[in-house]
Design goal:
The complex is a heterodimer of chains A (500) and B (431). With 500 residues, chain A is an alpha+beta fold. Chain A has three domains: 2-93, Ubiquitin-like (UB roll) (Roll); 130-272, Alpha-Beta Plaits (2-Layer Sandwich), CATH 3.30.70; 283-499, Rossmann fold (3-Layer(aba) Sandwich). Chain A has helices spanning 19-25, 82-96, 113-121, 157-164, 197-201, 264-268, 295-313, 328-341, 367-372, 379-387, 428-431, 471-481, 496-499; strands at residues 2-6, 9-13, 54-57, 64-65, 76-78, 139-140, 145-147, 171-174, 181-184, 207-209, 222-227, 236-242, 245-251, 283-286, 289-292, 318-321, 344-346, 392-396, 417-422, 434-437, 446-449, 455-458. In chain A, helix 8 packs parallel to helix 12. Chain A is elongated and about 90 Å long. By secondary structure, chain B is of the alpha/beta class. Helices cover 42% and strands 12% of the residues of chain B. Chain B has helices at 23-28, 33-41, 44-54, 66-71, 96-103, 105-119, 133-148, 179-186, 215-233, 266-273, 307-310, 331-345, 351-368, 376-387, 395-409, 411-420, and strands spanning 82-87, 123-128, 164-169, 210-214, 243-250, 256-261, 283-287, 296-297, 321-326. In chain B, strands 6-5-9-7-8 form a five-stranded mixed beta sheet, with helices on both faces. Chain B has a four-stranded parallel beta sheet with strand order 3-2-1-4, with helices on both faces. The chains are: A alpha+beta (500), B alpha/beta (431). At the A-B interface, helix 2 of A face helix 12, helix 13 and helix 14 of B.
Chain lengths: 500, 431
């Protein structure tokens, strides 16, 4: 360990780290110690080219860049004095010499580091009368990203990202000097599983995602912390919310889970939250199909159907199918309910492609949580449904329909009772006798357990325009209606213990 | 063979002799004696100490102590160490290394061998400017001869020291003369300087400890080993010993290469050796050390050509490329040319350099067109100041200094342009 003094405050830091790294390790960079920077990024190699992070170090005749200067015990650093401020002004002025200053039509306006730092550290008056460099404003870099060459400040974070994180290396700096431009190689578009991260790390409005650009001004958005539900990795995100609508996911830094990254597929999974195919109505089956029902009526119907099966065939004829998308708290209620009637449970987990970076094969946020609660392989339950030994099913979600499991709703058609709690429409509704709309993790309190066993909390980021429930509340009410011991008192608070 | 318009000393003494370029001719003049002595009779630290005591300063522009630089190489690296000879000679106004390679290739190779032995380098890369095709051919021939004679290879000069020399031609960029830009280019990457730390002595060519020196620097070394530090210190000034090759170009009667002791007055070089300005005109300004060094006005040519004296005049020796401009010269045009060069050659990594070089050039062009404004000179000064001392390499300084020099000594030229709203120097060299 070494002790460095920054603006009069002593910090204990690790040897072998640079000044910016050491301050970032402590979590004080830009919160307690303001050292503006463009090219440096905590998760990329050091570039040292933007020159904005210059600081004064006692004993050094010249200002030094904080990103690349290793800490030394006893180092005394000044980040706010006149000399440092003048250097920052110089860098800011020079960065703006060729910048188009088209903030009014720039999508980055409001979350632009060039705006922020120009305001904070720059000079208000522009002295350049020379024409600014005219370049391509709308370069289609690939399926996800559009590039404005004029706005680019050549920090090269995107270039390093592609080389170092997905290791695909699509981007490079072409030409040199003030003709330098970032571009792709001919016939090799920017197309990798993490391509949209370049828009996040671009400090200016040069790289924007086709998905988000021009959808909304960012100052209307509130960033609500949440968890991406695209796979078992549980990447931490901010949900960009305005008027109760989610416009985007941005990665939220968590060095133990996703660093500062997010895969493209996960990033776009926000679209499931406000999707038009959300289940929005509580329904019960009537003579001519499903009809809207009040919650209490639906709970009573579900309990009645289950009671009938239990009385006729016993608990073994009931199966509970958990959802790997549901929160631990709800799955705990399901577990308790199944245990008290002697029914079997399982969890069908959708799977897909994985990689060594973030993308996990299990395409659900809480598969590990479900397994930890005892939900296992769906094969015996699927066999029971097919053979007719299972007469009633409590179904969360619709992953059961996947070819790896039931392969469709047909086999459920003959069951005495199918109680469905789900977020989205599916074929399952055709077989369901009672349907409850469920909340997405972005709409509720709860916890999710990622692939590594890390339990992460979610909180409501948006409120639904229709009535929907946490699965646990409905299951507890059904349990109470069945007169099962312990359920009357549980109610909405059931399963909270799991969270802690 | 051209009759020597140059003044010779120990480095260039035999350059008129064509045989000197061959191994036999070089050996007949005492060649490889120094290397034999160093490799067989001395220990590497002794060689470094000798070069330190001689006070040899790098001749590539920065004037850093060569012996000190060699001492930065880790003695026990546990991995290969390399020597790199910077033969990129890209500074406008500089053409000394070319002659040193074309006429004294074995002198350079002998210097490389001694340098490699002193630093423990198993291999030397000579990175030669791409345009120097002839020099590359001469040097490669000399390398082949040296291998055939056993001076290089597994048992160099029968000393047991293994050394290989690889010649690599550059592809044409000023910045590849900057030592870490050179290393990148040598590795096959885009030529742009590396941030420091790490320094080349820790992490150089292909990640190995590396020392980079200029062609002329190495060429002095055999003479120092042969004749000793005392002898070397007897030439030049106390702080800047030895000779150097002054390349004189521009509006002089006799442009050429003059090997003279450091500390020779600039006026002697310009008026005696180069015979003054052609057409009987007067001198207006002289760039003393290659284009990146600030210009001196006619009344300051009394300065002695060594860094300790040039620094007092706010300029430096650089590569010793002296460019003389006559009384008709327009210093704004000179600035246009200089700033264009640096704008064109900036690698574009650092903000100040990438944006500053372009901005300076645009302002210079505007003033030359007669569209300058009152505050332009203040902006030029300020931009140049912002470019100085804040970047990965010294290129940005090299682009800022000449602008500062022009404004320091020829402000009236700029003011004339502003006042007359055109270039008033009708007989100046053209852009």
């Amino acid at each position: 360990m070494a002790t460095i003094t920054v603006d009069g405050v002593a910090y204990e830091v690790h040897e072998g780290r640079t000044i910016l790294q050491a301050l970032d390790d402590l979590g004080v960079l830009m919160s307690q110690v303001e050292i503006p920077h463009y090219c440096w990024h905590p998760k990329l190699t050091i570039d040292g080219s933007c020159r904005l992070c210059q600081v004064e170090i006692e004993g050094f005749p010249k200002l030094q860049i904080a990103c690349n200067t290793p800490v030394k015990d006893g180092m005394v650093i000044h980040t706010q004095n006149e000399r440092v401020q003048r250097a920052r002004e110089g860098v800011m002025e020079l960065l703006l010499v060729n910048h188009p200053l088209d903030c009014p039509i720039c999508d980055q306006a409001g979350e632009c580091k060039l705006q922020d730092y120009a305001y904070e550290y720059g000079v208000a008056h522009a002295r350049t009368r020379e024409p600014r460099r005219a370049l391509r404003k709308k370069v289609d870099l690939g399926p996800t990203i559009v590039f404005d060459q004029e706005r680019c400040i050549l920090c090269r974070r995107c270039v390093r990202f592609c080389r170092e994180v997905p290791k695909t290396g699509e981007l490079a700096v072409f030409a040199r000097g003030d003709r330098s431009v970032i571009d792709t190689f001919p016939e090799q578009p920017l197309d990798n599983d993490y391509s949209m991260n370049v828009a996040d790390i671009c400090p200016v409005g040069a790289l924007t995602t086709k998905d988000f650009r021009f959808k909304i001004r960012v100052w209307f958005l509130e960033d609500a912390p949440g968890i991406c539900t695209g796979c078992a990795n549980g990447c931490n995100v901010y949900l960009g919310v305005a008027s109760n609508k989610v416009y985007r996911y941005l990665p939220r830094r968590n060095d133990a889970v996703n660093d500062t990254w997010l895969c493209d597929e996960g990033r776009l999974s926000y679209k499931a939250i406000g999707a038009p195919d959300r289940l929005s109505e509580t329904q019960v089956r009537g003579a001519h199909g499903l009809v809207p029902a009040r919650r209490a009526e639906a709970v009573a119907r579900a309990a009645a159907l289950l009671r009938k099966t239990l009385d006729a065939h016993g608990g073994a004829a009931v199966a509970g199918i958990a959802s790997a998308h549901a929160c631990n708290e709800d799955l705990e209620v399901l577990r308790a309910l199944l245990a008290s009637i002697g029914a079997a449970g399982c969890v069908p987990v959708p799977t897909g492609r994985s990689d060594a970076l973030l993308i996990k094969a299990e395409k659900a946020a809480n598969a590990a949580g479900a397994r930890a609660l005892g939900f296992g392989d769906p094969a015996p339950v699927v066999a029971g449904i097919r053979s007719g030994t299972v007469r009633a099913a409590l179904v969360l979600g619709h992953d059961l329909l996947l070819p790896a499991f039931l392969g469709g709703a047909e086999p459920l058609a003959g069951l005495d009772a199918v109680i469905l709690l789900d977020t989205h429409h599916s074929e399952l509704q055709r077989a369901a006798h009672v349907v409850f709309p469920a909340r997405h993790p972005a709409e509720r309190e709860g916890t999710l357990t990622n692939h590594a066993g890390l339990v992460q909390r979610v909180s409501p980021a948006v409120e639904l325009p229709f009535e929907a429930y946490c699965e646990g509340e409905i299951l507890a009410e059904i349990g109470a209606a069945l007169g099962l011991p312990g359920f009357a008192a549980r109610g909405a608070g059931a399963g909270r213990a799991v969270a802690s | 063979m051209q009759t020597a318009p140059w003044i010779t000393n120990y480095l260039t003494e035999h350059f008129a002799d064509e045989a000197y370029r061959t191994l036999a001719g070089y050996t007949a003049r005492g060649g490889y004696e120094a290397a034999r002595k160093a490799l067989r009779e001395m220990r590497p630290p002794d060689v470094i100490e000798l070069v330190k005591n001689a006070g040899l300063q790098g001749r590539g522009g920065a004037g850093f102590g060569t012996g000190l630089k060699w001492s930065f190489m880790p003695a026990d690296a546990g991995k290969p160490k390399y020597l790199v000879c910077n033969a990129d000679e890209s500074e406008p106004g500089s053409f000394k290394d070319r002659l040193l390679m074309e006429r004294g290739p074995h002198q350079l190779l002998e210097g490389l061998l001694i340098g490699a032995f002193a630093t423990g380098a198993e291999k030397t890369f000579v990175y030669i400017r791409g345009e120097y095709a002839h020099a590359a051919g001469v040097l490669q021939q000399a390398i082949d001869e040296a291998y055939a004679a056993g001076h290089l290879g597994a048992d160099a000069l029968g000393s047991g020291f293994r050394h290989d020399i690889v010649l690599q031609r550059g592809a044409g960029a000023y910045i590849c003369g900057e030592e870490t830009g050179l290393l990148e280019s040598l590795e096959g990457k885009k030529g742009q300087p590396r941030k420091k730390p790490p320094f080349p002595a820790q992490y150089g060519a292909f990640g190995m400890p590396t020392t980079v020196n200029n062609v002329e620097t190495f060429s002095h070394v055999p003479h120092i080993v042969r004749r000793g530090a005392e002898w070397f210190r007897g030439i030049g000034t106390e702080k800047s010993p030895g000779t150097t090759l002054f390349g004189v170009s521009g509006h002089v009667v006799r442009p050429g290469l003059y090997e003279l002791p450091l500390g020779t007055p600039l006026s002697e070089i310009v008026f005696e050796h180069a015979r003054g300005v052609r057409g009987g005109k007067r001198v207006k300004g002289v760039i003393p050390g290659g284009m990146s060094m600030p210009i001196l006005p006619a009344d300051q040519l009394d300065v002695r050509m060594a860094n300790e004296f040039l620094r007092e005049r706010k300029t430096m020796l650089g590569t010793g490329g002296i460019m003389v401009m006559d009384e008709d010269s327009c210093m704004v045009r000179a600035g246009c040319i200089i700033t264009y060069f640096f704008r064109d050659e900036s690698c574009g990594q650092c903000t100040q350099c990438r944006e500053g070089t372009g901005w300076l050039h645009k302002i210079f062009q505007r003033i030359e067109r007669g569209e300058g404004r009152e505050d332009d000179l203040a902006v030029l000064e300020d931009v140049a100041a912002k470019m100085e001392g804040q970047t990965i390499c010294a290129f940005s300084d090299a682009a800022a200094w000449p602008v500062q020099g022009l404004l320091r000594h020829f402000r009236s030229d700029f003011e004339l342009h502003l006042r007359e709203r055109k270039c008033p120097f009708e007989r100046s060299f053209e852009l």
